[in-house]
Amino acid sequence: MALLVAVTIGLSGCESFEAGEAESTPDDTEIFKDRSKRKTIFGEGGFLFFGDDEEKPGTDIGVNSFLWRASLDTISFMPVNSADPFGGVIITDWHANAEAPSERFKLNVYILGRTLRADGVRVSIFRQVLNRAGQWQDSNVPDGTKVKIEDAILTRARQLRNSAIIQQK
Prior knowledge:
Layout: H1 2-12, H2 26-33, E1 39-40, E2 43-44, H3 65-74, E3 80-84, E4 89-92, E5 103-111, E6 121-130, E7 136-139, H4 145-168
Antiparallel strand pairs: 1-2, 3-4, 4-5, 5-6, 6-7
Helix pairs in contact: 3-4
């Protein structure tokens, strides 16, 4: 009930907005273009949660863009259940290969930072096999599979970085 009252009071202070009603003046435009001129209770420029907001190339996602793109490219054969470019987490759904329908795999890919480094990506693999009763049962992942996927992601990230460097020249 208190929440309803608070929302009602908050909305009662708002004016109705109709299309064409709001016109920006040159002063308003300049304030929004240059945030350093904007004064708030936190001082000039306001309070920034994630550092300064100057536009820097390749900072539109929270993790290294080459590792992010390479991860998506490498696991593109699997259905993606969720992908968080700011947290650097890609979770796939179960995938069974047509050549081995009695086993299925699921991947979680974690991109650990904003720099392109060999230890910047971690993969977790889950494997299930179909038992005689027709139910999926957890099973061990073959040795080296995790490292092969991480290496494939890193190789693809290096290729993407090299092509970006060539395009800049």
